[in-house]
Specification:
Blueprint (H helix, E strand, L loop, with lengths): L4 H9 L2 E4 L2 E4 L2 H8 L5 H6 L6 E5 L28 H16 L10 H7 L4 E4 L11 H10 L3 E6 L4 H6 L5 E5 L5 H8 L6 H11 L6 E8 L8 H11 L3 E6 L18 H15 L3 E5 L4 E5 L8
Parallel strand pairs: 3-4, 4-5, 5-6, 6-7, 7-8
Antiparallel strand pairs: 1-2, 2-3, 8-10, 9-10
Helix pairs in contact: 4-6, 9-10, 10-11
């Protein structure tokens, strides 16, 4: 196993299923969909099925940043592994998903028809932890998911624009933008490479040429980056993105060792920021989900449903 034993044990305790350098974890909204019928904002906004979503990562412990709001532990320095092939990763993650779901057969509240469907996921959220574009065969992973009938949502920090430019693109590409300026970026994202801000801007400039549905995601951390909507708007304009998601930082995982619950904005605060950003950017607010503290701004160029 490429992970240090203490890190692996910590992740397993947090209900990850570890697959060599990859990992899978049941999303809160997968569980909610099975037991209460409540669904993820991605189903509401984009039409995926929460109970059939595979939340995974090919790089469970590798990233070029140590974001203050990230739920992963930061204290481990893990050497790069020998990389698995895309089909091996998918096989392992599907098996892990089924194991994590198996206990729901005995849950009286679980919708058994949905549970049977959940055993055969058709949507991959490549975003669980780490920076997925570090995996050198990320384009091949997206192709392999597509060959199995999956749609794919990939979340990137934008620090490898050269990979975005050359790889097979997912059904929907997210890029995180968590600061309106370089100084805030250094404080909030804590990059470990010297030219991170320049790389983020290169990815924003590359965005218009990428032929897929594109989303800029802002994670608001109260008291840290929830200001300067003009700065955010100027950066987002470079991307000509289809959608902007403004989402609250959530007080979960290892972020609780760095932040306080007071850093988690209320939905009303997220919406107020989104309204100011909408005025600056010219993208109207078209959807929101209070339970997830997220607001959607849309360019109007593409349908929201996939």
């Amino acid at each position: 196993m490429p992970l240090p034993k203490p890190l692996e044990e910590k992740l397993v305790k947090q209900h990850y299923h570890i697959c060599n350098h990859s990992g899978v974890k049941l999303c809160h909204w997968t569980k909610e969909s099975l037991t209460s019928g409540r669904v993820c904002y991605k189903q509401k906004f984009y039409g995926i099925q929460s109970h059939r979503c595979l939340q995974m990562t090919p790089v469970v412990a590798w990233c070029q940043q140590k974001c203050i709001f990230c739920w992963r532990p930061h204290e481990y320095d893990v050497p790069m592994p020998k990389w698995d092939e895309p089909d091996t990763i998918i096989d392992q993650c599907e098996e892990g998903q089924r194991k994590l779901l198996s206990g729901y057969w005995g849950n009286e509240r679980a919708d058994k028809k949905k549970l049977e469907e959940a055993m055969h996921p058709n949507q991959a959220a490549i975003s669980l932890a780490g920076e997925p574009t570090i995996y050198p065969k990320i384009g091949g992973l997206i192709e392999a998911f597509g060959a199995r009938g999956y749609t794919t949502f990939l979340v990137t920090n934008g620090l490898l624009p050269e990979r975005l430019e050359s790889m097979t693109l997912p059904t929907q590409l997210y890029m995180s933008l968590d600061a309106p300026d370089k100084e805030t970026h250094k404080k909030v994202n804590v990059p470990m490479i010297p030219d991170s801000w320049e790389r983020i801007n290169r990815s924003l400039e590359l965005f218009p040429s990428l032929d897929t549905r594109k989303v800029i995601r802002i994670t608001l951390v109260k008291g840290w980056n929830d200001f300067d909507e003009k700065g955010y708007a100027r950066l987002i304009e470079k991307s000509n993105t289809d959608f902007v998601e403004v989402k609250a930082y959530m007080f979960v995982g290892s972020s609780r060792q760095r932040m306080t619950i007071g850093n988690m904005p209320r939905h009303s605060e997220v919406k107020a920021f989104a309204e100011r950003l909408s005025s600056e950017l010219g993208y109207p607010i078209t959807n929101e989900q209070e339970a997830s503290r997220v607001v959607l701004l849309s360019s109007g160029r593409k349908r929201e449903k996939i």
